[in-house]
Amino acid sequence: MDGFDNLESYQLSNIEFWGFEKNIEGNLLTISKESANTVLPELINYLDSENITFSICDVCLAYLDKYNLRESEFKNIKSLGRDFKDGKIDLNKYNDFISFLEKNIPRELKEHQKKSAYHLYILGNGANFSVPGSGKTSVVLSVYEKLRLEGKVNTLFVVGPLSSFSAWQNEFAETLGRLPNSIVLAGGDLNARKLNYYASSSTKYELYLTSYQTLLYDKEEVQLLFTQKNINIFLVIDEAHYIKKIDGGWANAVLNIGELAKNRTVLTGTPLPKSYSDIFNLFSFLWPNNNPISIESKLHLKTSEESHDFESAKKILDEEVGPLFYRVRKIDLQLTDQNFIAPILIEMNLNERKIYDSIYTKIKEYSQNEYFQNIDFVKKLCRGRIMRLRQAVSYTKLLHTAIENDFDSLFNESELEKIIVNYDELEIPAKIIELIKQLNILNRNNEKVVIWSNFIGTINLIEKHIQKIGLNCSKIYGLTPVEGQTNLYEEETREKIRDRFIDPNSGLDILIANPAACAESISLHKTCHHAIYYDLSYNCAQYLQSLDRIHRVGGSEKIIANYHYLQYINTIDLDIKDNLEKKTKKMLDIIEEEYSIYSLDMFEPDEEDVNAYQRLFNA
Q1: What is the DSSP letter of 609?
Q2: CA 337, CA 314: separation in Å to the nearest integer?
Q3: Are 227 and 234 in contact (CB under 8 A)?
Q4: Facing residues of 565 across strands?
Q5: Cβ–Cβ contacts within 10 Å for residue 2, how many?
Q6: DSSP state, residue 236
C-alpha cells in the first residue's frame, strides 16, 4: 500500500497492531495471507477513518469483492435471524416448513422445537443454546432430514462427549423413524479406526460419532473424509462449551474442519460458562469466513467484562450474534414442577457417629492454628478435610484409603483406625437401612429409581445390599465402558445399561450412578420418575445435570419428577444440601437470562470445598 512512509507514529503502531510487519528493507508493511483474510477489511476502514491515502492491488481487490459478497449474504442471514426472533415471520415459508415436519418427521416436535428448527434451517449454520432437556438433538435431526431430502447434505458428523453417543443413535431412530447406519470413531484400535475415514457415497456411514479427544488425534483423517467426493457433511458440535478455550487443542481441531462442512451447528445449554470470550470459538466455527464478532467488539467485550459493565457487553453480543442463535429457557418447556421431597433425616449408627464426631472435632481444633500457614497448603488441607467429612457421611469404610495418606493426622488413634478398617464387620450404615426401606416402597409401586452417589466404594456397597434383598440393579460410574471403547461384545456398556433401565419391561428397575459419569447427555425421564440422593457434593453443575436426567421434554410435561434425599442429622449433609439449594436458585435465575456469565464447568476444581470449610470452621 502506498503512503505508509508518511504515517504518524501512532498510526504506524495501530497498523502494526493488525499484524503487519516491515519487510527487510524497512519500507513496506506486509501481512500473511491467512491474517489478511480477517484483517484487510477492518484495516481499510481504519485507513479511511484516518484519511490516509492508499492504493489496493488487484489481488486485494479480488479478495475484497469476495469478502463484500460474503458479508452481504451474511448480513441477509442475520436479518432473517433477527426478524424471526422478533416475531417477523414469513408465514407461508414457515407453514411450509411445519408441513414438512408433520409429513416427514415421525416424532411430533414441541412448539419451541419447531421454532428452533426453523431458525436453524433459515440460517443454514446456527447455534442452539436451549437449556438441557429441551430436545436440541431432535431439532438438529429434523433440520438434517430436510436438508438431506433437498439434496444438500447426506452425512451427519457429530463431535461430542462419549456419553452423548447413545443419545444420538437413539434419538435418530425415534425422531426420523429409521435406524441410522452409524459408527463410533472413538477409542479402540487406532489403525482400524482410521480406515473408517476412507469412504464414498456408497460405502460411507450416515451418522459418524466421535469425541473431542479422538478428533484431535484423527484431524487429518477427518479432513480427508470431509473432502471426499459426494460426501456432504452436516457437522454438529454437541456440548460445545468444551471448545470454549481460545487456542485450545480441541477448539483448534474443531475450527480446522468447520469450513469443510456444508452445514454447521453448535449445541450447548451453557454458552458462557465463565467469560464472554467463551462464546468466540462457537461463532468462529459457525461462520469461519465472516468474522461474526469483530476484533473491535472482542476488545470492547473484554473491557466491559473487566469493568463489570455487563449491560454494555450484552448490547454488543446482541448486535453481533443475537440473530445467530436460538435459546429456549426452562420456563418455555412447560414441564411439570419438580417435587423436591423434604430430606429423610437419619441418626447415624454408633460407629459412624464416633468416627464422624472425632474427625469433626479434630478439624475444629486444627483450624484455630492455621492462619500462619501458606495459603495454598491451607486450601489443600481444607479440601482434604471436607472430603473426609463427605466420605464419613457416605460410607465410613471409604476413610480406609485416607489413613494411608493422612498428611493431617486425623486418624492417629488406633481405636479409630480399627473401626474404619473393620467397619463392614461392625455395622450396616444407617443410610443403607433407610435406602432399602425406600426402595422396597418404590418397588411395590412398580417405580423405577436412579440412586446418585459420588463415591465408587459407596456405589459398590449400595449394589451389594440391593442384590441381597433380591432386587435387580446396575451401576454406571467412571469405569463403566462407553460403546465403541470396548472390543468385548458381551461387556456391559453405559449405553446397554441405560437402554435396559429405560425399558419398562426389562426388569431392571434400579440404576446406581455417579453424577460425574452419568449426569450429562443421558435421558432417563420416560420411565424413571424418582431419584434418591444417597450423598451430595458441592458441585452445583453436576447436581443440576443430575436433576435434569428425569425432568425433560418428552414425558415430564405431565409426569412429575420426584427427588428424595438421605441425610445424617448434625453432619455436613445439611450444609451441602442448603448450599446447593441456594446456588441452584441463583444458577437457574441466571440461566434464564440471555447473556449471563456463570460457572457451570463440570470438571474444574470447585472452590466450594474451601468456602464450606471457612463456613463450618472459621465462622
Answers
A1: H
A2: 30
A3: no
A4: 533
A5: 10
A6: E
What does the pLDDT look like over 163-179, one tens digit per residue?
888 889 999 999 999 99
- Is it the case that residue 603 has pLDDT exceeding 60? no
Contacts 24+ apart (CB under 8 A), 245-252: 245/281, 246/277, 246/280, 246/281, 249/216, 250/212, 250/213, 250/215, 250/216, 251/281
Name residue 107's amino acid: R
Mean pLDDT score of the chain? 85
The answer to whether 54 and 3 are in contact (CB under 8 A) is yes
Model pLDDT for residues 70-108, shown as the tens digit of each residue: 888 989 999 999 999 999 989 999 999 999 999 999 999
Pairing of strands 29-30, 339-340: unpaired
Does the CA dihedral 310-312-318-320 come out positive or negative?
negative
Model confidence at 325, in pLDDT bands (50, 70, 90)? very high
Task: Supply angle C-alpha 355, 359, 362, rounded to 5.
Answer: 140
Cβ–Cβ < 8 Å for 393, 356: yes
Do 533 and 115 touch, CB atoms closer than 8 A? no
Q: In which element (H, E) is residue 510 found?
A: strand 510-513
**Strand ranges, E, within 272-319:** none
Count other C-beta atoms under 10 Å from residue 110's C-beta: 20
3-state helix, strand and coil shares in percent for the chain, rounded to the nearest 5: 55, 10, 35
> Which domains can be identified in the chain, with CATH numbers?
4-55 (no CATH), 67-333 (3.40.50.10810), 339-344+428-569 (3.40.50.300)
Cβ atoms of 135 and 111 closer than 8 Å: no
Q: In what order do the strands lie in the sheet with 207-210?
A: 182-185, 207-210, 155-159, 233-238, 263-267, 125-128, 325-326
Q: With bands split at pLDDT 50, 70 and 90, how would you rate the model's confidence at 464?
A: very high
Largest CA distance in the chain: 89
Q: How far apart are CA 25 and CA 2, in angstroms?
A: 15
Take residue 442 and report the three cell numbers written for it: 418404590
For helices 136-149 and 165-176, angle between their N-to-C axes, nearest 10 degrees: 60
CA distances from 88 to 80, 81, 125, 276, 497 (A): 9, 10, 20, 28, 46
Q: How far apart are CA 31 and CA 331, in angstroms?
A: 50
Per-residue DSSP letter, 179: -
Q: 442: Cβ–Cβ under 8 A, 6 or more apart, which residues?
A: 449, 530
pLDDT tens for 367-385 read 666 554 556 666 777 888 8
Q: Is the dihedral of CA 461, 467, 468, 471 positive or negative?
A: positive
367: nearest Cα among 574, 538, 619, 569: 619
d(CA 453, CA 532): 9
Q: Which residues contact 486 (CB under 8 A, 6 or more apart)?
A: 187, 493
Q: Cell for 252?
A: 483448534
Q: Cα-flanking dihedrals φ and ψ of residue 33, to 5°? A: -60, -40
Other CB atoms within 10 Å distance of the CB of residue 179: 11
- Paired with 562 in beta bridges are 339, 530
The model's pTM is: 0.78
Cβ–Cβ < 8 Å for 370, 378: yes
